[in-house]
Here is the input.
Amino acid sequence: MYQAIQWEVREHIGILKLNRPERLNAIDNVMRNEMEHVLRAAEADPDVWTIIATGNGRGFCSGADLKARAEAEKAGAGGTSPQPLFDMKYYYAIGFSQITKPVIAAVNGVTRGAGCNMAFAADFRILSEQANFGVNFVERGLMGETATWYLPRLVGHAKAAELCLLGEPFDAAQAKAMGLAYSVVPHDKLMDEAMALARKLNSKAPIAVQMTKIALRRAWQQDVEQQLELQNTMNNKLKGTEDTKEALRAFIEKRAPNFRGA
Here is the structure.
């Protein structure tokens, strides 16, 4: 069905693999559009509770496919191609952040530019020991796009300035030390660890997890009174769900709850 990505769902886990290994999973229009399609579908699919994003081959994502962008711009300037010029908006700036399902970035290797944006937008980052990053927009005469929004919140202003203004690469151990990674694992254990984390997330009440993600993201723009109002509204909705009722029954009966996402 897809050309530039792979998608499957098992155990309520959606597994998204970027699949242009010959280009270190650099993003072109095809990948961008396919990612938008699959994320919108995943958001609407009640069978998907958690998403894992990773890459095939040596790269997680090397950023925008600048060769494809140059070719698109050349074709567009000549008026010979109906395809719009390369546009990279939804998949990282909105997709991982705005989708209510938690997203785990299983970073398997080279991650640059827009690939960093994608990883930073995820809710969790599990890194292979071979993972390495570079917010290298300034080397391309550009600025760091959503990295300039996520990084100050993830690592603080001073470290974000260092990463974005210098654009120097850093490895998995450095990412863990600055608080960017949930864990760093042997390369051959990356997907096992990502699946284990996804199963742990899925052992919680899915709707409650989704509402908690929404509340965490909105907390970046709201004061405490607005956050408490949001919390009360969401908890009132959750109290009417079957999963909340099941959680209470399980507590009384001293057993593990059996959540169904309803």
